[in-house]
Design brief:
Layout: H1 2-10, H2 18-23, H3 46-58, H4 67-77, H5 81-95
Helix pairs in contact: 1-5, 4-5
């Protein structure tokens, strides 16, 4: 789950705890307020992971210069979700460029 937190922070998201939910006057807290760790699905859903990959590609880092970008591309070409997820996490750990 720490990797999901890392990705969420990279994407500018906010992690909220159960105390935040309890203090909220509404029965459900909206995703605009943030996500609990259990709500993050980067590790299981292409729908969650693809916007992260899009954000990485927008950074303009050449695949020839980044092993992590090449690993992401390999995972996408092979439709290998676990490989792609791991490559995204490694990219963020290595190249976060101050976004986290």
């Amino acid at each position: 789950m720490n990797d999901n937190k890392l990705i969420c922070e990279f994407m500018g998201g906010n992690i909220i705890g159960l105390d935040d939910v309890r203090q909220n006057n509404r029965p459900l807290i909206s995703s605009a307020d943030g996500y609990t760790l259990d709500e993050l699905k980067y590790h299981t859903s292409w729908d969650w992971l693809m916007p992260v990959i899009d954000s990485i590609y927008i950074m303009g880092i050449d695949a020839q210069e980044s092993k992590e970008i090449q690993d992401i591309m390999d995972g996408l070409v092979g439709a290998n979700f676990p490989h792609t997820y791991k490559a995204v996490v490694e990219f963020i750990k290595t190249n976060n460029n101050g976004r986290v």
